[in-house]
Structures are given as C-alpha cells and as structure tokens.
Amino acid sequence: MSTPDTTELHTALAALRAAVDAAVPRLPDPDSASERDARRRRLAWHLDEYLLPRVRDLDAPLVAVLIGSTGAGKSSLANGLAGRRVSPSGVTRPTTRRPAVLVAPADVEAFLSGRVLGRLAGEERLDMIVADEAAPGLALVDAPDVDSVEAANRQTADELLQAADLCLFVTTAQRYADAVPWDFLHRARERGVPLVVVMNRLPPDPEDRRAVLEDCLRRFEAAGLGAAGPAGGDGEPTELRILPVAEGERDPDIDGLRSDVVAPLRALLGQLAAEGPASSAVRRQALRGALEGLPGAVGAVAADLESDERRAGSLRAVVRRSYAGELAALRERMASGVFLRGEVMRAWQDFVGAGDVSRLLSTGLGRLKAWVSSLGGNAPATAPLEGAKEQAFTELTASLVRHADAAAGRVAEDWSADPASARLLADRADLWGHGDGLPAIAHTELTGWLGRVTQLVQEHGRSKRAVAFAASVGVNAVGVATMLAVFAHTAGLTGGEVAIAGGTAVVNHKLLEALFGEAAVRGMVQAAEDDLKATLTRVLEADAERFLVLVAPAGVDAAELEAAAAKVEQAATAVAGA
C-alpha cells in the first residue's frame, strides 16, 4: 500500500500550531491558571512533538513511553527489556530525574536528527541509552514519575505522553487505583494513544491474582480504556493488554525484571516496531487517535480563550467608560469659557487694545478693513498674543492631566476589585494616576493642532487684507487669534462682542471676519474646533492605552482557532480516504 500524501495535512497542522502560539490569554486566572495553561501547553507540545513530526515522517521510529507512579517498577521493566541496568530502580526515587530513552543502534541517527522527541533531544533533556537488545524502530522512554514531588518532572511526563505512539502504563497490585496516574490515563484516552498495562507485584495466590486483574480490567473498561490496546497481527485493535508480573520476579544482576517475564512484552514491541500489518496498524491507530482527540483539545483551549476575552472585554469597557466620562467633563469645562478667563484674556485684551484695533472694532467693519489695508510697518504687538497661547496651552494641559488622573484612578480602583485584574496592577503604582509622559504628549498634540489651525489660516487668507494683516503681525499670530476664537466658539460665544467673566475682556470674531469673510470664518472655526476635540480625545486615549495594552485581545480569537482545527480535520479526512 502506498504512503498517502500528507503535505496538505502538515500545512494545516502548522497553521493550527501558529494559531495556538497566538492564543495566549491576557488575564491571570488565580483559580485555574495552572490547568488552563497546562491545556494550552499540552496542545502545543502534542503538535510539536507528535503530530507535526509524525505526519512529516510516517516511518520514523515509534515512541513507547513508560508511565507510572513512584516505585511502580518502570525502571525495573526498562532494565528487563534492555537486559542490563540502564535506569536506577527503587521505591524512593530522586527528586530530580531526567527521562531515559532506550534505542537500538540503527535508530540513533533518527533520534539525533529530531525525527523522534525532537525538542527534548535538542534541549538535551533526555539520557539516550543505546542497546543491541532494544527493538529496532522503537524508542522506549522511561518517563519521570507522574506523582513526582517536582513539578518539572510531572510536566515532562505529561509532555512525553503527548509525544507517544504507545503508552505502557506500569502499576502495582496495590496502587493501580491511585488517583494521580488515572488523571494521566484519562488524558491518554483523550489523546487516543494505544495502551498496554504492566501489572507489577501481583500476589502469589492464583485466586487473588485473578481478582486483582479482573478488578483492574473492570476499572479500565468503565473508564473507556478497555479497547485501547495496540493492534494485533490482523491490523485491527485488540482488547486491552495486561501483562501480569508476580511479586519477586526480578533479576538482581540487572536490577530489573527477569528476561522470561518481559519476553511477551519484548515480542509485542518487536512486532509493533517491525514493518508489517501490526506496525502499520499501531501507527495508524496512534495517529488517528491523536487527530480525533485534536478538536476536543482545541475546543478546550478555545473555551479558555473565549472566557478570557469576555473578562478582558469587560475590563476594556471599564477603561473606555472612565476616560470617555472624563473627556465629556473636559468638554463641559471648555464650554464654560474657562480657558478664556484670567491670564489668557488679559493677554488677548493687550493685543486687541494695541494700536487702534479696539477702537476700530467698535466703530464699524468698514473702518477696520481700511485700517488693515493701510497697515505698513506698524503692527500690533504680538508678544502678548504668544503669551495668551502659552497660557491657554498650560491651562488646557493641566486640565487634561487632572481628568486623566481621575480616569486612571477610577479604572485602577475598579480593576483592583477583581482578583485577576488586580494582579495586573501589582507593582504598577503608575497606573493609579496619569502617565508620566502625558503633559509632554498633550503639549506636543496641542502644538500640532495650532499648526493645523495656522495652516487653515494660510489656506483661507488669500485676500489682500488677510495677506497684509498676516504680513504685519505674522501668520502665527493670526493662528492664535483663530485658536482663541475656537475657544469662544466651543463655549458658545460667537458673533458680535461678547463679554466674558463679567465683561473684563472681549473676544470678537469681527477681526477675523474682516480678514476672511464671515462664511469662511465659520467654516474655519468649526473645522478647528472638530480638530481640537479629536486632539483632546487622542491625548486621553494615549493615556488609556497603558491599561488597554494589558488586556488587549489575543493574537487569534476562539473562532479562528477552531477554524484552523477544522481545516486539519478536513485534511485528515482526505488523507484517510486516499
């Protein structure tokens, strides 16, 4: 039978792997972070260390992993299969232990080239043992204990399960019902990996032995593991295989099980590793099971991502509401005319009172036009006007800072009430107030806005009067005059002479109307006002970004992740039908 073309399947798996890499939840989850992160880590490892390399090279050596609890006899089994002491055995194991992999000489190159357990091999996290007694075409891995006191050991055992073509579950007559290894067995079922059970230390009495084996088989069948064994010679899956080992059947010279005891398992492994129906069947079953278990694993990660996005979305909404509320309050403050009082208005009064501007404004538009046309070298002093600009900028920046402080404080207070978002605030005292760079950002943005206002003045100031006046006082000064007109317009103070703050100062559009015309001034002021609102929004949004970046959406959403898995399923169906 020809080898099917798996190019499309490999491409789909690689795309899914990239999606998993981007599916990083943004929020810490104090209640279940370890399990949530473990689900994603197992899925990524399963793709990296099993599905991608196996689909890329269907003929790579099989990986059989010995899984079990402390003192279950994994190393005794490994020593027995190797025919020599390759792994220390004992009820008490060291707290730090590297997995050992037993390979035949012919498979060393496949192992070193990364065709088998590529990442563990590349990171030198495996001890490779080469033995003539090892079955060619099969890598036998003695994994760390699943109940190790070291979290890193438990994680390595979990990773090896995700990379296995065959799981050899090693247990004892006294401990086969322990909860911890059964957690691994349930994951083996979800993973779809074929299973063989080695039951160590059975009692010598035949009736007691039979009772233990029957109870063990009953538990496995109830858990849905009763038909998970590797295929037989006809290529069809068989019932669960249990290899019984009586108490004391050890060879002290090799610190392992006797050769005759492990002979049935050695023969089975040799049959599975050799080319033929049994080998093809176990490879197909392992790959099929891994692919069939993929939607469930992806679905769990997608559900975690969706839950995280709901919570992160709520936190983003808090940020946006708080800053939008302060932006609205700032606009109300502008509408009160506050930025045209005090020093700002005194500077403006100095300007409009200079020369004969104030008198001409009061005696009619015609006299003002004539005055503008007759301007020569004597221009109104512009220094007060520059002072008005700076004072307005200072007051507006200070107001922006105050409103940003209020918005940030409200967000931080709200976030601190939730355990997950509270952890985002840890060691971030800066988030309880405005960002350090906000005043500089505000001044830069306002300067840019005034520059655009001045550009509007240049675009509309094509009449002789406008050119003459701009030449006399400078186009920047006319831009500042327009800026103050915008402040007046924002405050609802338009047209004619309008007294502000008890009539202590006057802002009058007629100066601009004499230069540009009434219709042009209306459009110019409205455009500048809209630009100012956008500028203030941009400044506050820049401050809000300090929060939003902490809860930004993941690189992919749940739907995209599941769509990538669906493409893998489609490609796998095509391979199966080939």
Instruction: Tell me the structural class.
Output: alpha/beta
Please count the beta strands (DSSP E, at least 2 residues each).
11
Given the C-alpha coordinates, what overall shape results?
elongated
Spatial extent as radius of gyration: 39 Å
Quaternary structure: single chain
Tell me the β content.
Answer: 5-15%
Distance between the termini: 11 Å
How do the strands of the widest beta sheet line up side by side? 3-2-4-1-5-6-7
The number of helices is 22
The description of the largest β-sheet is: 7 strands, mixed
Outline the low-pLDDT stretches.
Answer: 91-96, 227-238, 354-358, 375-379, 493-508
**Average pLDDT reading:** 78
Overall number of structural domains? 2
- What level of helicity do the residues show? 55-70%
Summarize, please.
This protein is an alpha/beta fold. It has 22 helices and eleven strands. The longest helix has 42 residues.
Highlighted features:
9% strand; 22 helices; alpha/beta; seven-stranded mixed sheet; 2 domains; Rossmann fold; 578 residues; 11 strands
